[in-house]
Each structure stands twice: as structure tokens, then as C-alpha cells.
Amino acid sequence: MTGGQRGTVIFDLDGTLVDSAPDLADSLDAVLEEQGLKPLGLEHGRSFIGHGIPNLVRRGLLTRDPTLSEAVIARATDRFMRIYTQNLSRKTRPYPGALDAILELRRAGWRLAVCTNKLEASARGLLADLKLISAFSVVAGPDTFGAAKPDPRHLLGCLPAETPENYPALLVGDSEVDLAAARAAGIPAILVSWGYGDAAALEGKADATVTHFNEVVAAVERLSPARTTPV
Questions:
Q1: DSSP class of 48
Q2: Which of 190, 182, 197, 151 is nearest to 50 (CA)?
Q3: So what's the pLDDT on residue 98?
Q4: How much of the chain, in percent, has pLDDT values that exceed 70?
Q5: Is the pLDDT of residue 231 over 80?
Q6: Can you state the angle between helices 53-64 and 70-85, rounded to 10 degrees?
Q7: Using one digit for the tens of pLDDT, what is the confidence trace for 35-57?
Q8: Can 129 be counted among the known catalytic residues?
Q9: In the predicted model, what is the mean pLDDT of residues 98-106?
Q10: Which of 12, 23, 151, 174 is labelled catalytic?
Q11: What pLDDT shows up at residue 38?
């Protein structure tokens, strides 16, 4: 089997593998305070995660001041990246059971990838800090292949080159963005209930939903038939 005996399991990062909301929210609040704006706090900031850093910063700023110019937002986004890069793993931790599931999937012959709308360097830095980087054959941000979820090219780029038409691949994610990307790529989607997506709105729309990482391996095995759409 090309690139993995069993196929490839692609994981979203923020809200799926790791709870990064505290560090992201703290960095956003730091930017807001530098602009003289009131911080949003963890729970409000958490709701903006999942569509990439520029969207996170834009929504945070415009929530506090809808009159801000594009130039101000662009500078604030650059400032956010400088702050966040220094605080990737200050509070961020893997979700309970994540490491065990990763190890079990690798032992079973699955090739693992991370596909995130966080920039590749930030994703790699975070995974390295958490001692998870060696488990993944690919870490892909929106800058890796020039495409961001829900664009299916972001997912498909995570598969080995020259994969056969029926190469097994699955996505594990937490949001409507992940689900849309999986549907567009023609691969099954497993949604986790603990992430940053709207679980109620997504109920019943994925191929499987899990409530703890100890259910992920069984869901992968159950949903691992051939791809539904050729690349």
C-alpha cells in the first residue's frame, strides 16, 4: 500500500488533537489591549477558532470596533503572529487519550497526517513542543499546498504521491470546515464532540461522531473502506 500499510488518517489540530484555545485567546486579547480595546476572554475567543489566524484576529477586532481599517487589521494580524509564536504551548495540551489513539493507529499500520488552518511552522512548532511531531508523516497548513480547508486540495495534498484510486483515507475533525473539506475530497469524516465546532448543528452529518479519543480507533476501523471519489 503506497505511503502506509492501511491508508492515511488525517487529523485536524486545534479543537481535535489539542486544546489550543487558551493560548490563542490570550494572544488575541493581548492584541486587543494593544489597540486599546477590551479583551474578549477565553469563551468568546474560542468561538472564532477554526478558520485560520487572519479570520480569528479580524473577527476579534471587529467585534470590539467595527470601524477598524484593513491596514489596522493587517498590522494587528502580524502582531498576533509574533505574540502567538512565542506562546504556542504555554497552556495548550493534547486532549485526553490523544497520544494513546495516535500510537494505536500507528501500530495498526495507519499513516498519520495533520491538516490545519494554522500556518505550517506554527503547527510544527506546537507539535514539537508537545512531543507529538514524530507521529505524523505530514503536517500541512494553508501555506503548505496553497489551499486551506474547506478546499479539498488541503486534504488531498496530505496523501502520498501517486495514491491509487481506492486508497483509504479518513479525516478526524471538529468543525463544519472539516466536514465540508472531507465531503469535497470524497473521504469519510469523523467529528469529535469536544472541539470548537457547533456540535448541535453538526449532529448526524458526519460519518461518525465520537465523544472521547478512546472511540477514535474503532471509528477509523469501521469507516476505512475505499475512497468514494477518485482524486
A1: T
A2: 197
A3: 97
A4: 95
A5: no
A6: 120
A7: 999 999 999 999 898 788 999 99
A8: no
A9: 97
A10: 12
A11: 97
Q: Which residue stretches of the chain are H helix?
A: 21-34, 42-46, 53-64, 70-85, 98-107, 120-129, 152-156, 176-185, 199-202, 216-222
Query: What is the predicted pLDDT for the residue at 1?
Result: 40
Q: What number of CA atoms fall less than 13 Å from residue 129's CA on the CB side? A: 18
This prediction's pTM: 0.91
The Cβ of residue 14 has, within 10 Å, a number of other Cβ atoms equal to: 26
The Cα 59–Cα 160 span in angstroms is 35
Could you tell me the three cell numbers for 142? 494553508
Using CB atoms within 10 Å of the CB of residue 114, give its burial: 0 to 12 exposed, 13 to 18 middle, 19+ buried. buried
Res 229 pLDDT > 60: no
Task: Count CB-CB contacts under 10 A for residue 165.
Answer: 9
> How many helices, marked H, and strands, marked E, lie in the chain?
10, 8
- Short-list 162, 154, 167, 76, CA closest to 116: 154
* Partners of 170 in the β-ladder: 9
Residue 149: Cβ within 10 Å count: 28
pLDDT at res. 2: 43
Q: Helix, strand, or coil here: 103?
A: helix
Residue with cell 486545534: 14
- Cell numbers standing for residue 169: 483515507
